[in-house]
Amino acid sequence: MRESSVAGIQRGLHGQIVEVMAQRILSGTIPEGATINVPDLQADLGVSLTAVREALKVLTAKGLVDARQKRGTFVRPRTDWNLLDPDMIRWHFSDSDVRPELLEELHEVRGIVEPAAARLAAVRAQDSHLQALDLAMAAMESATDDLAAVAADLAFHRALLAATGNELLTKMEVIMETGLADRDRLVHKVKPSDDPVPSHRRVLEAIRAHDPVAAEQAMRELLAKAAEDLHEVRGS
């Protein structure tokens, strides 16, 4: 990773260094508790010592590393890692060898959050929220490739969270988006003919009817179907 290889774009280089170091930690190449020899790491990556130190500051903010007098820079225990950080979520999903069960953990989170979100949306959704959900449904129906289908699905679930009128729930999209996109891509590969429109349509119509019970039930059915898809993906 020589600095000249990125055409002098320092910001791009910085991001590459952070990601390489993060992946080494997440994969266990640099295990929990290990001391990081900064000069050796700098020589290995072929970048400046300043660039490595700046990257370590980012990883420190995400709870991955810490520095102490006499001990030096070391990898913190996994329990200290900020697993809800958007970059951390993306890094986890970019390497399936890190946590192969991560998709199942994501599904558990969705099972807790989204039925309740659908119930709230049915009570609180305004016209603007329904319009956003309608646009996402239209995009889902017209999607002609996996990329478009994934984008439409993400837009729907993002709009659903926004329709709750709860800012903290809306921020849950940070947790779900990367994992949900990865899950969608895997499902489309295994079940390319599977049609997600009917299950999402039932959720939307229950929200439009301001029926919280029906909205919650429709979301639970959607997630049950997602669990079946996930089981097939893991099996294949």
TrEMBL record:
SUPFAM superfamilies: GntR ligand-binding domain-like (SSF48008), Winged helix' DNA-binding domain (SSF46785). InterPro entries: GntR_C, TF_FadR/GntR_C, Tscrpt_reg_HTH_GntR, WH-like_DNA-bd_sf, WH_DNA-bd_sf. PROSITE patterns: HTH_GNTR. Keywords: DNA-binding, Transcription, Transcription regulation. Residues 11-78 form the HTH gntR-type domain. Gene3D superfamilies: GntR ligand-binding domain-like, Winged helix-like DNA-binding domain superfamily/Winged helix DNA-binding domain. It comes from the Bacteria. One of its GO terms (molecular function) is DNA-binding transcription factor activity. This is FadR family transcriptional regulator. It comes from Kribbella albertanoniae.
